[in-house]
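Let's practice the habit of predicting before peeking. Look at the sequence and jot down your guess about where helices and strands might fall. Then scroll down.
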Amino acid sequence: MAVLRPPVPPPQAQSTREVPVSRPRREWIYQPKWDGWRALLFAADGVLQSRRDNDLSSRFPEIVHAAAQLGDVVLDGELVALRGGRLDFGALTSTPRTRAAEGITVYYVTGARTGSQGAFGGSGSGLNRSGSAQPCQLCGVRFR
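Done guessing? Here is the structure:
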């Protein structure tokens, strides 16, 4: 059995002039583009790899920590940040230590089929409001 380990170049979308039409038993799968950063997540290895092969694990330890319980899986998704309940692309550049104080929550959004999305993540780099370590939990957030 082949084992997939980082770094791996992520698949890239191709441009098309027209939207393909689905047919019975050949339904197109799509994934919305969120206002975030594309990343591959190697859960067992604790690696969060950017589209350009940069290791983002130290920038988003809360995501890596939450994914550890998933086992030996590789996910293709997008890092998104919410501030005040709204997507905030600039908040992705915040440091793990300042996220909680700035009210920033980072999610890793993955999996798409007919518009249904799942996400997990947390705020404050796995720190609770008092600043002590707190593991980030998987959450059942669904976007429509």
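How did you do? The domain at 37-143 is CATH 3.30.470 (D-amino Acid Aminotransferase; Chain A, domain 1).
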